[in-house]
Amino acid sequence: MFSRAHHKIAAVGLAILVLLAVALSACGESSPAALTHAEFMRETEGVCIELLGDRDPYLVVAQAPSTPAGREARIVKAKLLPQLRQGAAELAELTPPEKDERRVARLLVLFKKGIRTVAADPFTLVTGVAFAGAEVEFQKFGLAACSQI
Fold first, then answer.
1. Span 37-71, pLDDT tens digits
2. How far apart are CA 42 and CA 63, in angstroms?
3. DSSP character string of 50-64
4. Other CB atoms within 10 A of residue 100 CB
5. How far, in Å, CA of 57 to CA of 63, rounded?
6. Which residue from 4, 35, 36, 90 has the least number of CB within 10 angstroms?
7. Domain range spanning residue 83?
8. pTM, whole model, 2 decimals?
9. What are the Cα distances from residue 92, in Å, to 29, 89, 122?
10. How many domains does the chain have?
11. Is there a contact between 149 and 135 (Cβ–Cβ < 8 Å)?
12. For 35, how many CA atoms within 13 A lie in the half-sphere containing its CB?
């Protein structure tokens, strides 16, 4: 009924389907490899340095004595808050070494708490109150740039 060529084609097709199924099932299972402590520190500081560089021009305007309070709040909400949220998302994507996981989770909680504080009251960013707890913990962990947020 079927020739030998048909059986070979069917076997090759079946093999390709099995390989595709195995490859696709493996795609969803991979998790990012944990960074070494040094790699994690370097990556985290890089995110914070970028965040500070993006933030500073807006913060200077917001803190200027000539800036009305309403405009100051608008600058913080429109420009700085999205940057802070993006920074938190980037930090959350980094996979710390297992020994640092709990401490890093605590740092992220404090950082996100600071963001919520700024969202509720933009002036807490300008006065430095919003991230006071996070800044201390970042400093203790050895993340100098992050402690300046």
1. 999 999 999 999 998 888 878 777 777 777 777 88
2. 30
3. HHHHHHHHHHHHHH-
4. 16
5. 10
6. 4
7. 37-148
8. 0.73
9. 19, 5, 23
10. 2
11. yes
12. 17
